[in-house]
Amino acid sequence: MALLGAAAPLAAQQPDSVRRDTAIVLAPIEVVGTILAPTGPKIGSGIPARTTIISRAQIEAIEPRLLSDFLTTQAGISSYDDLGASYKLSLSSRGFYASPVVGLPQGISVFLDGVRQNEPDAAQVNFDLLPMEHVTRIELLSGTSSLLGRNSLGGAVNLVTNSGGGATRGEVELSGGNYKTFGGNASVAGSAGQGRWSYYAGGGYNREDGWRQLTEADQYNGFFNLGRLTETWGIRFQGYGAKARAETAGSLPLSVFRTKPDSNLSSGDYEDLNNLQLAVSGYRRTARGQFSASVYGRRHRAERFNVNQEDDPDNLGKSRNLVIGGSADYRWDQSVGGATLGLRVGTEGSVARTEVELFADSSKFSGPLVQTTFVKSPTWDVGTYALASLTTGRVTFSAGARYDYVRIPFENQLDATRDTTSSYSRLSPKAGVSVDAGSGLTLYGSVGAAYRAPAVIELACADEAEPCPLPFALGDDPPIKPVRAVTYEVGGSLIAGNALLSASAYRTDVRDDIGLFASDSSPSGSTIEGYFDNLDKTRRLGVEASATLFVRGGHTLYANYAFTKATFQSEAEIFSIREDFGGENEVEVGDEMPLVPSHQVKFGGSVNLSRGFFAGADGRYIGSQYLRGDEANEEPKLDGYFVADARLGWRGQGWEIVAVGNNIFQNKYATFGTFNVNQGGGDVLERFLTPGYRRVVRLVVRRSFGGGED
Do 297 and 277 form a contact (C-beta atoms < 8 A)? Predict the structure, then answer.
């Protein structure tokens, strides 16, 4: 995988010639230290960090439908559902978010074979477009990643896809369950041209009606990898296309949540997305090092429709993103007086063409469709970085820095006199040390900076004097400052017999976080007026610990715990509809951020039974958290909850049959909460909650053909 200017799909193909601080292949593997790959550094590479690498076998053991489903089993990562659709979950890690919701502050980067999947218009992540069927490894970094560029404040996730090779083989999978859940995918992989070329191709389809009313969702995807690799050079071609549509139900007033949690009070809301990505990558080895490069193109189109209150027009939004980018990277390693010195330099950049159109749709009362916004933003960015590591004995010293420049024009197609341009630049350094203390113990410490430039949507709604009548209009507003974060972290791992233990403690100080502020005007029906601006100071601190036990016979047990405290460190008045009902939402120093649970406990395992049977179970407790709109911590928290999943299966002679149950105890809980006016309850302010999914049972049948597993 190559996130720093390298050819991602090639990384898994070559042996690593550079010494690793700790390189222990266990499942799931917790690597504390340097992780280097021939065509570019993996997540955390060159810098001591808490990195988790998950194999395809571990992914399939959970039988997730989406990336967000799987990541919630990892330490410190929780999910919430503000859209009311199981395909549209948002993730929280260390108090930062990766979400499909446009307009939320995004602080986690997501990559597919090193190509950024955060969209340029709002940095959102559409998990239902990511090809989980074709992923062979997940690489997860918890914490600030200075060298991965913008948005990596709270972590980064990279999906490494199947690149084929070896004997020709294929796989077909069908699944089905309650709520008319159905899925099917097929793939073929192998080698051609007397083994000189490797290939992989596959496609999939998934759908469900959803357990809530009118929440149907479906998703299609197709993917291929084709490459030729030699000892001195390699090239790979990749293509991926996906289409997803989901009807969303949103949150419910508390009075409805308690009696009819399957209700949908906003029937007609939907998101319709499609994505196409093409990439070419290659490498060339020289006598002293290795050069690698890649170029890619991404096209993303989205249509979103939101049903508003009876007297207000509905909202139709359309966006189109076209991104063309590339990278180049050179790595050099040399022995110097008994030590190993590694140097790496590289650059990457992209040009993005973003278009956003918003319409007020009055057709429900025989009115017109009126365009309220049409903007274009030909954004471009460039980043350069340098890494150095020195390994002497059992100690590795690491240092690196990355410089980024982003230019974001705002072209108002309805009023050319209101065009503006914002530009941002930032140097983000990071340094650390890792020590192999012997007897399986590794310790590390690091400090690093990261930044996030404001998204196009945030820049277009950032003027206190002219607040945006959301969701209908964007404007040419004054620039807001980029978000800056500095993280201090210490941690370690211990391999003791069949057990793998790891722990880390961190503190992230953030300047100029971006939030939505209230205007002086009151909400009018479904329309609110607000603007994005900077918060002076915020902070995240916490502890993460995990343990994995590998038992003879292929049995595995795991447990992890995370404490997270995300707080405001300066005073502010954050937007909340509670303001019109006596709740000013005036934030004070020390108030906790919403939707960040303080405590998370997760545990589970898998066991191999006799005659090819196997079983597994996972449980997670997510602690209480404040509701969105209660940044001042004036209202009761959202209750904590516990969810358990289980599976039972059989495999043999190329067949695998698995029964999967999610929320097997049918626990009732809410994953998200905010405040709104209940129009059907006398225009009173209520807590609006999104119910967690009910018990879902699926049967998965998988048939493999040909030689060996990938």
Answer: yes
* Each residue's pLDDT tens digit, 477-498: 567 899 999 999 999 999 999 9
Whether the predicted pLDDT of 649 surpasses 90: yes
Q: Which residues pair with 350 in a beta bridge?
A: 325, 381
- Name the helix (H) or strand (E) containing 67: helix 67-71
DSSP code, position 416: G
Q: Which amino acid is at 14?
A: Q
Contact 144, 171 (CB under 8 A): no
Buried b (16+ CB within 10 A) or exposed e, 605-642: bbeeeeeeebebbbbbbbbebbbbbbbbbebebbebbe
| 554, burial (CB in 10 Å: exposed 0-12, middle 13-18, buried 19+) | exposed
Buried b (16+ CB within 10 A) or exposed e, 647-673: bebeeeeeebbbbbbbbbeeeebbbbb
Query: 582-633, pLDDT tens digit by residue?
Result: 667 889 999 999 999 999 999 999 999 999 999 999 999 999 999 999 999 9
What does pLDDT average to over the chain?
87
| Burial class of 393 by CB neighbour count within 10 A (0 to 12, 13 to 18, 19+) | exposed
Who's near 245: CB < 8 A, 6+ residues apart?
A: 217, 218, 219, 270, 271, 272, 273
C-alpha closest to that of 600 among 36, 72, 55, 91: 72
Q: What three-state secondary structure class fits 495?
A: strand
Instruction: List, for residues 381-412, the tens digit of each pLDDT value.
Output: 999 999 898 999 899 999 999 999 999 998 98
Contact residues for 664 (Cβ-Cβ < 8 A; gap 6+): 644, 645, 646, 695
Beta partners for residue 600, in sequence order:
562, 622
The residues with which 395 forms a beta bridge, in sequence order, are 392, 435
The whole-angstrom separation of Cα 501 and Cα 482 is 37
Residues above pLDDT 90, as percent of the chain? 61
Write the burial class of residue 312 (CB in 10 Å: 0-12 exposed, 13-18 middle, 19+ buried): middle
> Could you tell me if 376 and 353 are in contact, meaning their C-beta atoms sit under 8 angstroms apart?
yes
Residue 13, pLDDT > 80, answer no
Strand partners, 228: 197, 235
Residue of 363, 290, 218, 220 lying closest to 7 (CA atoms):
290
DSSP 418: G
- Look at residues 381, 378, 371, 374 and name the one whose alpha carbon lies nearest to residue 402: 381
Strands (E), 439-525: 441-452, 468-470, 483-496, 499-518
Nearest partner of 378 among 345, 339, 335, 421, judged by Cα: 421
Model confidence pLDDT, tens digit, residues 503-512 = 999 999 999 9
When comparing pLDDT for 302 and 467, which is higher?
A: 302
Taking Cα atoms as reference points, which of 158, 154, 44, 159 lies closest to residue 92? Answer: 154
Domains of the chain: 8-706 (2.40.170.20)
CB 580 within 8 A of CB 523: yes
Q: How far is CA 365 from the centre of its chain?
A: 39
CA of 547: how far to CAs of 221, 295, 554, in Å? 35, 39, 16
pLDDT score at 23: 34
Q: Is 562 within 8 Å of 600 (Cβ atoms)? A: yes
CB 275 within 8 A of CB 320: no
Predicted TM-score (pTM) of the model is 0.90
As a whole number of angstroms, the distance between CA 553 and CA 539 comes to: 45
Q: Which residues pair with 446 in a beta bridge?
A: 432, 489
